[in-house]
Design a protein that fits this description.
The complex is a heterotrimer of chains A (285), B (435) and C (273). With 285 residues, chain A is mainly α. Chain A contains twelve helices and two strands, in the order αββααααααααααα. The chains are: A mainly alpha (285), B alpha/beta (435), C mainly alpha (273). Chains A and C meet through helix 1, helix 3, helix 4, helix 5 and helix 6 of A and helix 1, helix 3, helix 4, helix 5 and helix 10 of C.
Chain lengths: 285, 435, 273
């Protein structure tokens, strides 16, 4: 009996087992091997010992890219939470057409990042961009959205927030609907006003959803690639060079596959650690 | 049960259909040799290639050349890299940027041209060893032969110069900056017509944009000095510094705007100078024939500079890939591409300068140069056209140049001393890693 | 009175933000019909509508071919992921075998590995298999996903075992059970996984950029990226917007009809994470 079940189980899992050996296990093992090689995508791989690792430690551009990604996250994640929460509460409190509005807020989520980036590149244009035209129309000075090394990454973070906030709004809306009404009613009887109810009941009960939003947007943020690739190419002055873009350039632009594999491993370790720490810290709050 | 089979069969069928992507094939024709030749995918060069190839095929029925445009893509280099990895390279390609040859040689992707018995005489007669030497590979052999050059010079708007009181095109950095100041004063005095700038550069840190500013000026300032030779840093540090400093002055004084235009500002008459090669001239002549009254001159050099003005040559070389089955026949075709008659077509159809010694003394070109004074100026300059060094990682080296250019020259966030130092340090890091 | 005022304010705010989300898309679409000099303008109505931008796009790049490529690739991937994800998910939830626990653990573990790590080795596998510049190279590495397996597994756990036992006693084979009983009951899961997979693969740009070099094989988002970055639009902004609109259109149309399912899919997958 047990054997039959095992055969069935293995048989039905076979597609995954085959797939995983070629596209999960092998790449994992191979990436560790690649770290000690120099491979340019054309010639045979050459053993270079610890060269890639030592270069990694001297590569200030790589650390710049990690810093850029962190800056992105520090702006994107809080903005997203604040606005998503705000929209969720707002949409939850109206009845007529709330579904339509939710769909509108969600629309940027499904559209390709390429489309969003192309549009926002024009919104952010310095001389004739839509945003700057609006600003100068009301007498405010133009903002160098994408041409200032300090403002460029925040601009991308804002665009990313615009794109994704609909998803997190929907998540918060689900979370809000889970808040039992009797708790609210009991609080009203106790004389608590709307704000107090919000702080004392809604927010604590929304905490699991907030944790979810933080973790999801962090993982998303570490994958930042299309936006800087299309919009700025990593500039100005490397301020928008995300780590994934840097790794991509090292591998597919400069042909340093071994070095890029080393960067990839290091970066994956960073992501792993950050996500684990986040999970621990946030789950305790 | 049948549903399962249906679905699985459908998926497998879909995958099989997908698998039949287009692949480059080498059709084996028993009667004659077929050579595949990749040319640059732009309109003029395709026109040139078509003419050259059809004439060859007419006169050489035993060696048939099949012309294909390089797959248009992110960049030629990526296409070639993928083709080399997949072993789908053609026999001959004429759009090779010399900066990539070291990597191709390391990948054993190229045939050594030195092995052909008449290579030396051809190189000597068409090009001359003094210009040929910079295309030699590390092992002393030649895996490429330079075909054409696009020497970068300064184009200037004669009418704007006249209006601003600039008598003649500037030859030195000081003259350039002085004239730029004159233009700015003129522009400020005539506010109604919009602002005029002395020049314009694409300020995004795109590495190949630096061909047309930093590297051109470096060649000029250093008289063709390399940056890397024999696997070590060997650069004219003073030249690096002065080039970064010059452009820093241009941007900080707002002679060059810190913006990206949606149109070509020189053609629009908004900037007075630009640094371009002959291809741009023919582009202007074809599309905007009488819009701008322009002149050509050498790029500015540091004040203390003496002697001929060097520039960046933007060369393209011809190579034969090692996947070829017909090296001898491919070499015969390559020699044809480098003949005087073919070079004349290169001038007439594609408006590019063949890499040819004593080009102005060639009788067959006399009529052409008499009718095309502008091309004549470029041809004169071509004798002093320098190409990038034959070392690995040229792209990443240029990327580093672009980084410092952005930081120091465009945004003024570091001094030219620091820029030079950082650049050399990063180049050393890149080179050492390859050793 | 106060309630009506509050409600009005709420709707006003909702409406303002709705326009913040809508205006950029409307601006893009209207821009595609404007001529060069007014593309950057703020108005949503072109003064002299023109189709020139679209014509430029169709002339310069094989955009319809790319649309076809994206469709073929995304549909195949979705079919594959959904089918195999369900089958494997079933084996991990409804078949009591000793390996199930370990395999499930392994699959969950692989979900934690950031893809940045395996990006380059996977590329090498594709090169060695000779699948660069081949649509299969896009499909195969994405043919199964851990997410889909886990989602199906979780969903199947809600199907009562007794139902399956009865079928077994009746003499049905496991595959018959899967296709005739379990699948029909799992429509929500199929829709969720299907939509998520389709959308992810449709919008993917990084992997096609790595695997595909030949223009005629590029996916739609990839081709639009190359078109915009490669300068063939020759700074005709309207053409760039036109390419971008063509890219956005299929998904927007699908979204228009099925938004409820889209939103639900994302929310479900988020919560399960």
């Amino acid at each position: 009996m047990r054997n039959r079940a095992t055969i069935q189980g293995l048989g039905l899992s076979l597609p995954y087992l085959i797939f995983a050996s070629g596209f999960v296990l092998f790449p994992l093992v191979f990436s560790v091997y690649l770290i000690f090689q120099r491979w340019d995508g054309m010639s045979a791989a050459v053993y270079v010992g610890l060269k890639n690792i030592s270069r990694l430690f001297q590569d200030d551009l790589f650390y710049q890219s990690v810093l850029n990604t962190i800056i992105f996250l520090l702006i994107n994640v809080p903005l997203q939470i604040i606005f998503a929460l705000f929209f969720a509460v707002l949409l939850n409190s109206i009845r007529f057409l709330s579904g339509l509005f939710r769909a509108i807020y969600f629309a940027p989520v499904v559209v390709s990042g390429v489309v969003v980036t192309i549009i926002w590149q024009q919104l952010y244009g310095y001389d004739n961009g839509v945003l700057n035209s609006l600003l100068s129309g009301i007498g405010i000075a133009r903002v160098p959205w994408l041409t200032s090394p300090t403002i460029a990454m925040p601009s991308i973070a804002i665009m990313a927030t615009w794109k994704n906030v609909g998803l997190y709004t929907a998540l918060f809306m689900v979370g809000l609907q889970d808040v039992p009404i009797d708790l609210h009613e009991a609080a009203i009887i106790d004389g608590a006003n709307a704000w107090k109810r919000f702080y004392r009941i809604t927010i604590p009960l929304l905490t699991p959803t907030m944790v979810l939003v933080v973790i999801l947007s962090t993982i998303n943020g570490f994958s930042l690639f299309v936006e800087p690739y299309v919009m700025t190419g990593g500039g100005p002055m490397n301020s928008t060079m995300s780590t994934l873009l840097y790794i991509y350039n090292q591998a597919f632009y400069f042909g340093h596959f071994g070095y890029a594999a080393a960067l990839g491993l290091f970066y994956a370790a960073i992501i792993f650690i950050v996500v684990i720490i986040q999970r621990r810290v946030l789950k305790e709050e | 049960m049948s549903n399962a089979i249906h679905i699985t069969a459908l998926i497998l069928l879909a995958m099989v259909i997908l698998g039949c992507g287009p692949k480059t094939e080498q059709t084996l024709n028993n009667q004659r040799v077929v050579i595949t030749y990749w040319a640059a995918p732009n309109q003029q060069e395709m026109m040139l290639a078509n003419q050259l190839v059809s004439e060859w095929n007419k006169n050489n029925p035993d060696i048939h050349v099949r012309l294909q445009a390089l797959p248009a893509n992110q960049s030629t280099e990526e296409v070639l890299m993928a083709a080399i990895a997949a072993k789908t390279t053609p026999d001959v390609c004429s759009n090779i940027w010399p900066g990539t040859v070291p990597e191709y040689v390391r990948a054993n992707a190229l045939v050594s041209l030195s092995q052909f018995s008449d290579f030396d005489s051809l190189a000597e007669s068409r090009i001359g060893w003094d210009r040929m030497v910079q295309f030699r590979s590390a092992d002393g052999q030649y895996y490429q032969i330079p075909w054409k050059t696009n020497p970068v010079m300064m184009i200037y708007n004669k009418d704007l110069f006249k209006a601003a009181g600039i008598a003649s095109p500037p030859r030195t950095y000081s003259e350039f900056l002085f004239d730029a100041q004159k233009l700015t004063s003129y522009s400020n005095a005539n506010v109604g017509n919009g602002h005029y700038w002395m020049g314009y550069r694409d300020i995004r840190p795109i590495w190949w944009q630096r061909y047309f500013d930093f590297f051109t000026f470096y060649c000029a300032a250093s008289h063709g000095h390399p940056m890397v030779s024999n696997d070590s840093v060997n650069a004219d540090t003073n030249a690096i510094r002065s080039v970064y400093y010059f452009f820093q002055k241009c941007f900080s004084n707002q002679y060059f705007p810190r913006t990206t235009f949606q149109y070509d500002p020189f053609i629009a008459g908004v900037v007075a100078t630009e640094f371009v090669g002959p291809w741009t001239i023919s582009y202007i002549r074809q599309n905007f024939p009488d819009k701008i009254n322009y002149g050509i001159g050498p790029v500015p050099v540091p004040d203390s500079s003496k002697g001929a003005v060097y520039t960046y040559g933007d060369h393209k070389s011809i190579v034969i890939f090692s996947t070829t089955r017909y090296p001898m026949e491919s070499w015969r075709f390559v020699k044809y591409l480098l003949s005087v008659e073919s070079d004349l077509k290169l001038l007439e159809i594609a408006s590019q300068i063949p890499v040819r010694r004593d080009i102005l003394k060639e009788p067959k070109f006399e009529r052409f140069f008499n009718q095309n004074k502008i091309m004549k100026i470029f041809a004169e300059q071509s004798a002093y056209a320098k190409e990038v060094d034959q070392s690995y990682d040229q792209k990443e080296i240029f990327d580093s140049i672009a980084q410092e250019f952005e930081k120091c020259s465009v945004y003024g966030k570091e001094t030219s001393d620091e820029a030079a130092r950082n650049l050399l340090r990063r180049i050393k890091l890149i080179i050492d890693w390859e050793k | 009175m106060k309630k009506a005022l509050l409600l009005t304010i709420k709707y006003a705010i909702v409406f303002v933000f709705a326009s913040v989300f809508l205006y950029p898309f409307l601006w893009m679409i209207s821009g595609t019909f404007k001529s060069d000099f007014e593309v950057m303008g703020l108005s949503l109505i072109p003064s002299h509508p023109t189709l020139a931008n679209y014509l430029l796009v169709f002339e310069r790049v094989p955009i319809m071919r790319a649309l076809l490529n994206s469709t073929i690739v995304s549909v195949t991937i979705t079919l594959s992921v959904v089918t195999f994800g369900a089958i494997v998910g079933y084996s991990l939830s409804k078949i009591k075998w000793s390996g199930a626990k370990y395999l499930t653990g392994f699959i969950i573990f692989t979900m934690l590995i950031p893809f940045q790590l395996t990006l380059i080795p996977t590329y090498l596998v594709i090169v060695k298999l000779g699948l660069t510049d081949n649509l299969l190279g896009l499909v195969i590495p994405n043919a199964l996903t851990a997410v889909s397996i886990i989602m199906f597994r979780q969903f199947f756990q809600s199907i009562p075992d007794s139902l399956l036992e009865a079928a077994r006693i009746d003499g049905c084979s496991e595959l018959e059970i899967i296709f005739k009983i379990v699948f029909p009951l799992s429509r929500p899961a199929f829709i969720t996984v299907g939509i998520l997979t389709f959308l992810t693969s449709w919008n993917d740009v990084l992997w096609p950029l790595i695997v595909i070099r030949e223009r005629s094989l590029m996916t739609l988002p990839q081709l639009v990226t190359v078109f915009v970055l490669g300068g063939e639009a020759e700074t005709h902004l309207g053409a760039e917007l036109a390419a971008s609109t063509i890219l956005a259109l299929p998904i927007i149309i699908l979204y228009g009809f099925f938004q409820k399912y889209f939103i639900q899919s994302f929310v479900t997958s988020g919560i399960k994470a």
